[in-house]
Amino acid sequence: MGKRGRPTADERAARDERVLDVATDLFLAHGFADVSLDRVAAAAEVTKRTIYTAFGDKAALLRAVVQRHHGYSDDAHPDLESTATAVVEALLSDRAVALHRLVIATAVSSPELARGFHEAGPLTAQAALVRAGADPGEAEALFTLLLGERHRRRLLGLEPAPTAAEARAAARRALALVGAGPGVTATRHDPADPADPADPAGPGPAPGPRSA
Q1: What are the DSSP calls for 188-200, one per residue?
Q2: Considering only CA atoms, which of 88, 77, 79, 78 is closest in space to residue 182?
Q3: Going by C-beta distance under 8 Å and a sequence separation of 6 or more, which residues neighbour residue 204?
Q4: 3-class secondary-structure state, position 95
Q5: CATH number of the domain at 13-177, please?
Q6: What confidence score (pLDDT) does residue 72 get?
Q7: Could you tell me the CA-to-CA distances from 164 to 62, 88, 148 in Å, in that order?
Q8: Which of 62, 63, 64, 71 is nearest to 89 (CA)?
């Protein structure tokens, strides 16, 4: 039998996905510090050199694991509402929340790891929102609104991941709050002006005389 040639692009892609699956499972089961690249390589049935070539060192591998949750960022023709919904679904998913907890547990001792997580996760999501049409100056605020208090409750294990319908509803609420939802103008309400037309309620009734 002749020597096998180089793997095809499809074979490399499948191999890399397998490595990421294995790395994710091992990191979440044993923690980042207690998982070596040798262990990942053995479980994924590849060489350590293959992992270095495809991803880099262990920190880079974790970054690739995190970034894989943001596949929507590769969309060539993104729609803002769909992208916002995808951000909610991705970052409130069980695995994304578990990875967030893992990085928080090591952030103080491994600030570079935390920085890599932030770049591969939150900053990737914000860049995707901008490409989909979000105001660059409001991308961070929109991202914060998309996760909201629910993300904190997810991190604490107080509620399950949102359904697809719940994720889209959360996206629409966040977009409306920054004036980017369907049929919503970007005009902001001036709280100093009771007649501001941006206030859908309009000016309220004048207060009546206070009773003695």
Answers
A1: PP-TT-TT-TT-T
A2: 79
A3: 194
A4: helix
A5: 1.10.357.10
A6: 86
A7: 27, 9, 16
A8: 71
Give the DSSP letter string of 3-14: PP-PPPHHHHHH
DSSP codes joined into one string, 17-79: HHHHHHHHHHHHHH-STT--HHHHHHHHTS-HHHHHHHT-SHHHHHHHHHHGGGGGGG-SS--
Structure tokens belonging to residue 145: 């609104």
Residues in the chain: 212
pTM across the whole model: 0.76
| Predicted local confidence at residue 181, as pLDDT | 60
DSSP structure class, residue 187: P
Asked whether residue 202 carries a pLDDT value surpassing 90, the answer given is no
Contact 87, 139 (CB under 8 A): no
* C-alpha triplet 196, 140, 162: angle, nearest 5°: 95
Contact 81, 142 (CB under 8 A): no
The per-residue pLDDT for range 30-69, each reduced to its tens digit, is 999 999 999 999 999 999 999 999 999 999 999 999 999 8
pLDDT digits (tens, 9 = 90+) for 152-201: 999 999 999 999 999 999 999 999 999 876 544 333 333 344 433 333 33
